[in-house]
Description:
Blueprint: E1 21-24, E2 27-30, E3 38-43, H1 50-68, E4 71-77, H2 81-95, E5 103-105, H3 110-114, E6 129-134, E7 140-146, H4 154-170, E8 184-185, H5 192-198, E9 204-207, E10 210-213
Parallel strand pairs: 3-4, 4-5
Antiparallel strand pairs: 1-2, 3-6, 6-7, 8-10, 9-10
Amino acid sequence: MEMLKETTVLPRLGDPAPDFTAKSTHGLVKLKDYADKWLVFFSHPADFTPVCTTEFLAFAEIYPSLKEKGVELLGLSVDSVTSHIAWVRNIEEKTGVRIPFPIIADLSKEVSLAYGMVHPGQSTTETVRCVFIIDPRQVIRTILYYPMSTGRNMSEIVRIMEALQTTDRYKVSTPANWMHGEPVVLPPPSTQEAAEERLRQGYECVDWYLCKKSLPAEG
């Protein structure tokens, strides 16, 4: 009889983010430290590697704009705190860029495995390039996986973050390729009467089920 493989239940969209307490370059960090904030929690394969270094430079570049939106950044790999500190000091020495956010040292892989950051098909010893966007209620709202060879697109991470905040605030959706400030998509009407009324409300409509509207400018 073929033995069933042990499976791990990976976190999914809408699930509570797995709790953790871990050592980092900024001391002990806990998931609850980020309660009431948005969090972009990401993993990288290894310190002192070329693609990861370009990503950390890029994450540092978008960090100020994320902070303005009430968003924090938190990194992770299975390297040690000492390795993380040496690496971020090397980045600053060689490029002049300071890495302002903490990096978890997950030597035991406890956090990595809870978040499904280790993919044996890619590596059994390193985390892949994952991104988890966690909302202020500490619910997972976005999960992105990138292959080891492909650096992440920071513009897309910022775009998703802006879309989530917009849809939460205005109870709308965002269309394909949406960018901040562009029209959003209205929820479809739930009755025939509402569908007929929708077409008379002055929105940009393809038909009753697909209508867009512009949001007020944010001051």
